[in-house]
Amino acid sequence: MSINNGYDEKAVTEAIATALETFYNNLIAKIDELNIQKIMKRKNPYLYRAKAMQNAAEIVESVLTAFVSSSEETIFGNCFFEPIAIAASDGNKALAEGIDIMIQDKEENVMYAIAVKSGTSVFNADSKKRQEQNFMSAAKLAQQAKARYEAYVGYSYGKKKESGRAKPKIYQELAGKKFWAKLTGDEEFYKKIITYMGTLPEQYVAQYQESYNKAANRLVREFSNIFCKDDGSIDWEKLVEFNSGD
């Protein structure tokens, strides 16, 4: 049985548009504030030497690509799926810790608590225990309302076997198609998210690329000024000392 049979396409499309804007704004802001010293403090200079990298542009391209890849996945997961799930389920942003959506179906006398996650590999043992505790705390709201309580962890993409309601878990896990179908009653909704994006992503490509190119040029200049010798060669000892010395 689905939580919401029928959803407002306009609300979903607007949520996707807002989520995309938030994603690109946050990603571009991250790129714009990059500086080479902050990056190289966290990188492995021995790896770059072992790969025989010989120029600043080569190293900068490597670190910038890795930074964007890591950042975009995190930012996207944090800002994209939750508002879409709220719009699609006609639910409310939850105030309870560790819960993203609360839905009270007065007709069926059910209270749903939903934690929206990105991919299926988000939990370790400690975070899984915290999630169970958060659901247990939210269950008190259902008790006060004298409503049946159902808790879900929804993974926005990927596949995962349904966990059922076996103890000690008090929640069910649904992923990808099954999660979005549970929220909306639409077996095809997980595909429609792509359709609803339309041409919105293309509107941000130029702004993102400009930011990326500026960062690449800026970081090459900074790297050359700090970690290159007068003849232009990389000063590996200086780079290692900066990264790992006193």
Characterization of the model:
The structure is a single chain. 58% of the residues lie in helices and 11% in strands. By secondary structure, the chain is α/β, with parallel strands linked by helices. The chain has 2 domains: 15-79 and 200-244, no CATH class; 90-197, type ii restriction endonuclease, domain 2, CATH 3.40.1560. Strand 2 and strand 3 form a beta hairpin. The model has no long low-confidence stretch (mean pLDDT 92).
Descriptors:
five-stranded mixed beta sheet, type ii restriction endonuclease, domain 2, alpha/beta, 2 domains, 246 residues, elongated
In short:
This protein has about 250 residues and is of the alpha/beta class. The chain has helices spanning about 10-30, 35-40, 45-50, 55-80, 80-90, 125-145, 175-185, 190-195, 200-225, 235-245; strands spanning about 90-95, 100-105, 110-115, 150-155, 170-175.
Strand content: 5-15%
| Rg over alpha carbons | 23 Å
Oligomer: single chain
As for the number of domains, it is 2
Order of helices and strands: HHHHHEEEHEEHHHH
Helix residue percentage: 55-70%
Describe the global form.
elongated
Structural class: alpha/beta
Distance between the termini: 61 Å
Q: Number of DSSP helices? A: 10
Strand order of the largest sheet: 1-2-3-4-5
Total number of beta strands: 5
Low-confidence stretches: none
The pLDDT mean sits at 92
Largest sheet: 5 strands, mixed
